[in-house]
Amino acid sequence: MTPSTTVRSPLRLYGRDDELATLENLLTLLRRGDGGALVLAAPPGLGRTALLRAAAETHRDRGPVLWATAASSERAVPYSGLRALLGSDVVGSGAAASDAGVATGAPAPGIARDALAGRLREFADGGPLLVCVDDAHAWDAASRAALTFEARRPGAGSRTTFLLSAADGTAFAGLPTLRLAPLDDAAASALLDRLTTGAEGLDPVVRAEILHDAGGNPRLLAALAGRLTPDQLAGRTPLPWPLPGGEAVLAAHAERLDDLPDRTRTLLLLAAAAQEHEPEGAGADALLLLRAGTRGGLPRAFLDRALFDGTGVGDLLQRAGSRVHFAHRLTARAVLHHAPWARRRAAHELLATLLTEAGDRGGADDSQVRDVPGLPGAPESRTARTTTARTTTARTTTARTTTARTTTAPPALPLAALVQRACAAPGPDAALAAGLEAAAVAPIPHAARSAALVRAALLSTGPALRAARFAAAAEQARLAGDPALARALLARTGPRPAGADPAAGPGTAAGPVRSGGAGPVADPAPADPVTASVHAGAITDLAPGLAPYVHGMLALRSGPVADAHEALLAAAALLAPHDHRRSLDALLGAAEAAWAAGDALGYLDAMGRLARTPAGEDLKDYPAGMSAVLEGRTAEGHARLRRCLAPGGDPGDPAALLRAGVAALVLGDIAAACRAGARALAAVRTAGPDTLLPQALEHLAYAELRAGRHAGARAHALEGLHAARRTGQPNSSAHLHAVLALAASVEGPAEVCAAHGEAALAGAAPHGLAQAVTLATWARARADLAAGRPGEAAARLAPLVKAGPGRGHFATRTLAVPCWVEAAVLDGRLSEESRALHAAVDEFAFWAARAADPGAPAQLARCRALLAPADEADARYAEALAHHEEAGGDFEQARTHLLYGQWLRRRRRTREARGPLRDALVGFQRCSARAWAERAAGELRAAGEPVPAPRRDTAGGPLARLTPQQQRIARCVAEGATNREVASRLSLSPRTVDHHLRNVFAALAIRSRTELARLLNP
Predict the structure, then answer these.
(1) The HTH luxR-type domain covers which part of the protein (predicted)?
(2) What is the average per-residue pLDDT within 343-362?
(3) Distance of alpha carbon 616 from alpha carbon 611, whole angstroms
(4) Angstrom distance (rounded) from CA 951 to CA 938
(5) Which of 103, 549, 817, 886 has the greatest CB tally within 10 Å of its CB?
(6) Rounded to whole angstroms, how far apart are CA atoms 773 and 606?
(7) 340: left (phi over 0), alpha (psi -120 to 50) or beta
């Protein structure tokens, strides 16, 4: 350790902008003569040294820098830290020590502090002094005390700032501390991109696995990426398991353990081992640790303090309710990595024994939790504490830790106990692997099943069985909502890399084993053949089809749906001889993918295969009915689909209920679709799986949109969007954004509709989601109509509904026809688009005649009224309004009233126009369609009926002096519309617009349209 005044510039620091700003502020104060101190506290690898070097480099040209790095080997040498910082001629031994006032063997703290202060003043004479000490926690106690004393003194008028880095802030209590957090996902991803610059390409699955394993630790991230070959980074060869490169970081984390008492190290080892059978991030069960520590001979008082009072183990462990967590994720891995194999194995075996005892006795009940001191309502009696120490583990707080049992043949050991035994296994163990596989069934959560199957794969003795179990683990990870892990596990279904030690997986703590349209695809039954079988042959038979099945299901929710379609068709063929139910699910998934892509032929092909495959009653009519409707055999199709509205089999099967909702929408029975969607959502919330929650919410929200319940649709779609993001389903996110855009096209504001529409298009286009594209485009066009921009609306909708390569989704484009007819007519395109408009209305009429949608006849009559000559239009509007009275639906009825009122006013039947326009205003207000209500209010004011102006015009703004008609014209012109476009929007003649615009210019004392735009849009 030597002092230095020259520090080289570090590489760019990712994700540390806030920390760098804090350091810059500290150095700015130093230059102004206001010294200070700051401790950068973080476990190894998070970049505290890099931040220290960045600060030193920034200050180097402004004043001297003293730099020292501590060495743990000198920690026992008194004042070795100060000698390293200031030089041995200032604080040392022999003559130098005597000159400085420090006696060898009997240091005088006061004199040492004076020597430190004096030398620092000498350095500060050359300018503002920055003192940097890296790993200051590793200094000897005397040097730390002297440094802490001196660092508390700077302030106004000081020319010295102390910048220290330490593993934690406890060694420098009283000094300001900045604690570093792991890098966020964006920063870690950017750093990984720089680290792999020059590589041929970083495979997305490899990227996700490296980022997850690094956990936001930049040093570990660099180490992991640096140890992989170009072929491994590109995904051409499988990754080793565990990923190599983390040994140095884990060793640095483990350095603190050497100075801890034996009982503390033992408890930390038990806590780290107890997390192995838990879902990732769940921590360890405090009661299990209490029993394990007691059984292991640790004092009860120490265990109470450490587990329930939060004292006795420093800041390494934290308690949250009945769970115990490590303060830093890597510390747990470091504890296991640092412990000798014999001690680690003993800890796992002890935990396995305790978990087995708990399973044999059915677990402990909730009352045992209250007997533990430190938990809510816990009595403090010695008797209660002793009873608790003998009771079994209570793992009843979450369903994730429920012990798997079946009524006929319960597994010999609970799953948690089997996982602990797997961690203690020295090598492959076929019997233990089979036991893990057999225990990984419902009601064990999918994440725990996946972790167990990974352990089983690592213990497997043959490559085929290992690959099959990795594929089964990938499926469970997908159902748990972790697609990144599922893809990583699928990547391991290939041959194991040469030289890999099959025994290293289960017992290696550093390994990344994580504990923790068409009809929807049914997830496998809880006791499916893959996870229930204890026979290696059963799971091996599934191996050829299981991996493509999981690949296809992942692509269906988060990739190109055309790829999903092909993968699932192939998987169905491979699975058919071995797993009939999953083969049916693959065909349903292929059909759903084709539906989302707008591929009618692909949908019919998948449904045809499904219809030819023997199936139960719940699937007999659905494929035949959907195919018949698409092929034009409407009566037959409707008859079959009506039988799907009350699905047989399990009444709580969410997939069957969602298929019933789809059938109801095709039939036009919107009320039945809403009921089926609500029941499906309840079923998913009750029994899962979580991966089906976004689809359940999407189906219900879309049915509510069709029913005119826009607020409910928005609420359910927002919840679905959060669920889709949480479970890694971007395709579902795109569909839900489209639903939200449709809701916002009614309720507003326009900016929200545009944002959701753009998000839907951005997610849908790369993955070929034609349905989402169609719905989002329709929503944007409807918002244009609400804002009085029919030209833009017509331009958006024309490609969707007209024949051509850009035509919209085969099942949803018809719903947009009424909006296109309205936009084209209001924009004055009736003469040039007459043929296409009449063809589109004929198609809509064909659909309306075969659907039971109660609103379809009214919308059809409205379209015909818009296209009819003047002498027929009146009767057509009356017909449309009569249909609305029968069907209900405030929004569509208000739109018809609005168009009828506009038509009457355009023909100068002003008095007659007021009634429909008044009804339109009330209808829009009733369904909270604000933009539409404003448009109706403007029309009503133009018809001569006073309507309160929008609040934005009543606060003394520039438009307050204009009439309502002039205000509307002024806004349109300020947006850049020409007189002809304004006339089209407001149902006026261009001459009338010109007349009003001249009056607007005069009233506002302006001369040009540019000045008007500046006035209204400052």
Answers:
(1) 955-1018
(2) 82
(3) 11
(4) 14
(5) 549
(6) 23
(7) beta
